[in-house]
Specification:
The protein is α/β, with parallel strands linked by helices. It is built from 11 helices and 17 strands. The chain binds zinc ion (ZN) (2 copies).
Length: 338
């Protein structure tokens, strides 16, 4: 089969790769589309220590079941599916608690094993989800980023209330519409006006993340602070500010990733005084069905801001994205030109 192969960081080319055969319990998926995520850029830039080169990236995958392995039941060849890429070991403490997203031996399709930038990919049958009829496979690649939004909103118990989202990158954008679907009034912030424009197009009220942010949020919430603050920047300064932005008794959900070893400090007294809940949110677990439902319901317009590229032009696309990271809001590689 054809695949987008990286032999080393910054080196990407199209070449032949052994077509995988589905092991017992697995299905073979003929890839239709695969999203480009910050994680894929990290592999390209050589910033992901878990990747073994040569590597085929791509974990936001949608396609059609082409074959099934031994013992696979309940899914037919020809079914359109979205692939859930996070595979837990099923044995460790978080897996036993139903939190396989935090698995001690987590493996990710497109990171630890070949991903969706290829003609075919294999996945456990438990990790392929039928795509609703009215959803295109291009749109279905958004099941993964939207699932991250679903997970964060579940962790933060977002309801019909004021929700402040820090950061309008790909995850922040996915969060806006999931929070809105739960009835939230969403206010989103970023340092880039171009990103705020997209956030507004998706239905958020926006605020520039400048030194007036705290003052404005306080004014908007009658001096109480935000009931929910979701951090999606990965910036330690923004993380530290969540404690000031949140209302007493409110919830903070940290989705953004800081660099390994980076410390974030909070004023200790506020933990007790404000009795805030601080939770982390990592990838997603059990969120794909809700994510696909949200996409099919039309409540998620996020795919509309994405740019489609031909998968076999990936080497140029990645080179360009490495040089101009903000040139597209979100890219999706399409295997067929349709
Ligand atoms: Zn992703
Ligand atoms: Zn595990």
């Amino acid at each position: 089969m054809r695949a987008v192969i990286m032999n080393e960081p910054h080196e990407m080319h199209i070449d032949n790769w052994t077509t995988p055969t589905p092991a017992p319990g697995e299905v073979l998926v003929s890839v239709a589309a695969a999203g480009i995520c910050a994680g894929d850029m990290y592999i390209y830039l050589g910033k992901n220590p878990y990747v073994i080169y040569p590597s085929v990236a791509g974990h936001e995958i949608a396609g059609v079941v082409a074959a099934v392995g031994e013992g696979v039941q309940g899914i037919q060849v020809g079914t359109r599916v979205s692939v859930e890429p996070f595979l837990g070991c099923g044995k460790c403490y978080p897996c036993r608690q139903g939190k396989s997203n935090c698995c001690a031996n987590l493996r990710i399709i497109g990171v630890h094993m070949p991903g969706g930038y290829a003609d075919f990919v294999t996945a456990p049958v438990t990790h392929v989800h039928p795509v609703p009829e009215n959803l295109s496979l291009f749109e279905a690649t958004f099941a993964e980023p939207v699932a991250i939004g679903v997970q964060a909103c579940r962790r933060a118990q977002v309801g019909a209330e004021y929700v402040l989202i820090l950061g309008c990158g790909p995850i922040g954008l996915a969060l806006i519409e999931v929070a809105k679907a739960r009835g939230a009034t969403v206010v989103a912030t970023d340092v880039l006006e171009s990103r705020l424009e997209t956030a507004r197009a998706l239905g958020a009220e926006t605020l520039l993340a400048d030194d007036k942010l705290l003052e404005t949020v306080m004014a908007q919430t009658h001096g109480e602070g935000a009931p929910v603050v979701i951090e999606a920047t990965g910036n330690p300064k923004a993380m530290e500010q969540t404690v000031d932005l949140v209302a007493a008794g409110g919830r903070i959900c940290i989705v953004g990733l800081v660099k390994r070893g980076t410390m974030v400090s909070f004023p200790g007294l506020d933990f007790t005084r404000k009795e805030m809940t601080i939770v982390g949110s990592r990838a997603s677990v059990g969120c794909f069905p809700e994510s696909l439902e949200l996409l099919a319901s039309g409540k998620i317009q996020y795919p509309k801001v994405a740019t489609r590229f031909n998968m076999w032009e990936a080497p140029d696309v990645f080179k360009n994205l490495a040089e101009h990271p903000d040139s597209v809001q979100k890219g999706v590689l399409m295997r067929e030109s349709s």
